[in-house]
Amino acid sequence: MERANNSGVVAEDGSCIAPDGIAVISVSVDNIQVIEGNLRAQIYSGDPEEFLEKGKKLVRVDVPVVTTDTSTICVPLPAPGTYALVVMHDKNSNGKADFFSEGFGFSNNPKLSFGPPDAEDVMINVAPGVNEQSVTLNYIFGADNEKKDKRRKLRRR
Fold first, then answer.
1. In what side-by-side order are the strands of the sheet with 71-76?
2. How many CB atoms lie within 10 A of CB 122?
3. How far apart are CA 91 and CA 103, in angstroms?
């Protein structure tokens, strides 16, 4: 697994660039609940057998959460090809997937239930240059702290 340093693919204005024609995914991440922790983008190969398997991710990029508005992560790839993209909001920055409190999203934004999506639903073809991909984070409990506080107050009545 390559822990990518995305500094060579980020322009001064924060946009993604693809020097020398390398393949880069410009990931626009929406629905970020809170400004804390990191956003983590992970890339898996086009082989469905390797999707989400431990030790099979090809690239990982972590960036701090600085806004609840749309954030962009620039992810350099080993080469053009077919990949699966996973984005996690690691709220506590512990590097682990805390499924009940953290947000997750995938390339192609498949409808999520209680398990991961099928690999075929998240595969994307990436060409040389900058490739745009939008990911909406999903939180299992789906509510931010303000909404949770309101629900607690309502239950106390």
1. 71-76, 23-30, 129-136
2. 23
3. 8
Task: Report whether 75 contacts 4 (CB < 8 A).
Answer: yes
How many CB atoms are closer than 10 A to CB 111?
A: 7
Tokens for 8, please give them: 């060579």
Q: What is the domain count for the chain?
A: 1
Query: What count of residues does the chain have?
Result: 157
Domain range for residue 60?
A: 2-156
Token duo for residue 103: 């947000």
β-pairing, 2-3 vs 59-64, is parallel
58-88, pLDDT tens digit by residue? Answer: 999 999 999 999 999 999 999 999 999 999 9
126 neighbors 80 (Cβ within 8 angstroms): yes
Task: Read off the pLDDT of residues 15-57 as tens digits, 9 standing for 90 and up.
Answer: 899 988 799 999 999 999 999 999 999 999 999 999 999 999 9
